[in-house]
Amino acid sequence: MRYELYYWPSIQGRGEFVRLALEEAGAGYVDVARERGAAAITPMLEGKGLVRVPFAPPYLKAGKLMIGQTANILAWLAPRHGLVPKGEAARVWAHQLQLTVADWLVEAHDTHHPVGGAFYYEDQKPESARRAAHFTGARLPKFLGYFERLLAKEKGGWILGRTFSYVDLSLFQMVAGLRYAFPRAMDKLAPKHPRSAALHDRVASRPRIAAYLASPRRIPFNQHGIFRHYPELDT
Amino acid sequence: MRYELYYWPSIQGRGEFVRLALEEAGAGYVDVARERGAAAITPMLEGKGLVRVPFAPPYLKAGKLMIGQTANILAWLAPRHGLVPKGEAARVWAHQLQLTVADWLVEAHDTHHPVGGAFYYEDQKPESARRAAHFTGARLPKFLGYFERLLAKEKGGWILGRTFSYVDLSLFQMVAGLRYAFPRAMDKLAPKHPRSAALHDRVASRPRIAAYLASPRRIPFNQHGIFRHYPELDT
Asked: Do A13 and A226 contact (CB within 8 A), yes or no?
């Protein structure tokens, strides 16, 4: 099956968590907006021809299924591509961790958009300064510390222990994105989180992920995505 | 099996989505902090005796499984209690909708905590005023309109069409909570969303839900939960 990914063509965003899973799986997929032009996703974004319209991208078309919500897409994809153990307990736990990553991602995003997505960052700078200080001072250490402790408890270096999973790909993406957005804060926190850093490096060196990261398919981090680098927010 | 729900005893919060599902299912459960005192959940919140520690409550103990993340708990519970159709496509779609409810819930919460949970509302009133205006003016109509359109497309009055599901319980809770928090905004939007209102009423009149809502097990909405009524934010 050749999947179709519907997501914005110019940012990593939430779609990147799906791209990483598809790339690691070696799955055939079309990144529709990137390969056919941004206008190619418009009818789908408007729900044309769909009864069950997703609220927001990314969505993945898999045969007759159209799946929305990043964590939902990953939970569907992973068991079909060996990206999660088959047992129910492991799948439930992996999904739980992915949903925690999703919560973390919202908080990372809201550092530059605490008032709402309808306003430019430039129109919410004082609010952003407060929220970002709370994020780098309290929330970022809390999330990093949580995953670091799990890595310490589970022997094997992956978040599920000895078995690599899609959640490792998502944690790689979080570390990479947070280093781009908050280099100073992440640098300061680095000594406390060696396992997360090691996981990041191990993921980055997996052959398919390394090839993807070196390819033009990997959109560089930029100031339109979820992770943005505003030096004044990185204190 | 007798479930154990670990959640704060004095608010509806995220735990309420799980309580509603357990009540509708007629499942045996202990609401641990409410029945045994708030201190009874402390060891679990600290991860005592757990390798796979959840990030935050609610969690549900189901035999040997300890499940965290509200939508994950519901996705696990629902097929075991007839709260979602058995087919994969329906389950994936229901979960997708539940995750969209979860996103909506975060936005409802952040109207009174745009800077972060570490600060009192009183310490972020100007930021809240801006965020709440954006919420009631743009986001609330967008989410309500989304679910209203789905209800119009699917004949039968439930969000999955003719089949009642746990997502209907969650939509009931959203409408109830939003009416508590934003009575003026919800009143103004009501004429455009008759189907959501009808769904709310149908859920409320289901025998087990009606009995639950009339019981002391249903914690009243209050100013410590996710839905809070600040008149100055309801414009």
From this structure: yes
Amino acid present at B69: Q
The CA distance from B184 to B178, in Å, is: 10
pLDDT per residue of chain B (235 residues) written in tens, 0 to 9: 899 999 999 999 999 999 999 999 999 999 999 999 999 999 888 888 888 999 999 999 999 999 999 999 999 999 999 999 999 999 999 999 999 999 999 999 999 999 988 889 999 999 999 999 999 999 999 999 999 999 999 889 999 999 999 999 999 999 999 999 999 999 999 999 999 999 999 999 999 999 999 999 999 999 999 999 999 999 8
- Nearest by CB to residue B76, choosing from A52, A64, A92, is A92
**B218 found inside a domain:** no
Nearest to B114 among A64, A69, A127 (CB): A127
Cα B178 to Cα B199: distance, rounded to the nearest angstrom: 14
Is there a domain that residue B119 lies in? yes
Domain with residue B115: its CATH number is 1.20.1050.10
How many domains does the structure of chain B reveal?
A: 1
How close A51 gets to chain B, by Cα (Å)?
7
Chain-chain contact of A114 with B118 (C-beta, under 8 angstroms): no
User: What are the angstrom distances between the C-alpha of A112 and each of A9, A135, B48, B125?
Assistant: 21, 11, 36, 18
- pTM for the whole thing? 0.98
Of A67, A89, A131, the CB nearest to B92: A67
Chain A residues with CB under 8 Å of B103 CB are 55, 106
Residue B200: CA atoms inside 13 Å, Cβ hemisphere, count?
17
Binary contact (B150, A53; C-beta < 8 A): yes
Name every chain A residue with its beta carbon within 8 A of the beta carbon of B150: 52-53
